Amino acid sequence: MKKIQVLGMGCAKCNKLYAAAEAAAKELGLAYEMEKIDDIGRITEMGVLMTPALAVNGAVKFSARIPGQEELKKTISVAE
Predict the structure, then answer these.
(1) Measuring CA to CA, how many Å separate 40 from each of 18, 59, 67, 71?
(2) What integer pLDDT is reported at residue 79 of this predicted model?
(3) pLDDT (tens digit, 9 = 90+) per residue, 40-77?
(4) CB 17 within 8 A of CB 8
(5) Of 21, 25, 47, 52, which has the fewest CB atoms closer than 10 Å, so is most exposed?
(6) In this predicted structure, what is the pLDDT of residue 10?
(7) What share of the chain is helix, strand, coil (3-state, %, to 5)?
């Protein structure tokens, strides 16, 4: 099961990334768990300085941008 984490303080871009990542995982037919991380301490512990950010299985894949749907699907599907 993939753990998809969206890091951010709840801004509109963070919510958009959450929805896009969830849609990508559904399109791929993956078993996944979504998590929103809005605690600034946890965000900085993960090395993220700008949000929104996306992590898969604890590894940050994107920061400070919302990738396109195809890029999201590719990143989520190949993440360990």
Answers:
(1) 17, 17, 22, 26
(2) 86
(3) 999 999 999 999 999 999 999 999 999 999 999 999 99
(4) yes
(5) 47
(6) 87
(7) 40, 25, 30
Q: Domain holding 32: CATH number? A: 3.40.30.10
Nearest by Cα to 28 from 67, 2, 60, 53: 2
Total residue length of the chain = 80
**Which range of residues forms the domain containing residue 68?**
2-78
DSSP-derived secondary structure letter, 17: H
CA pair distance 54, 67, nearest whole angstrom: 10
User: What does pTM read for this prediction?
Assistant: 0.94
Structural contact between residues 4 and 56, judged by C-beta atoms closer than 8 angstroms = yes
Query: What is the number of domains present in the chain?
Result: 1
- From CA 8, how far away is CA 17, in angstroms rounded? 10
What's residue 61's pLDDT?
97
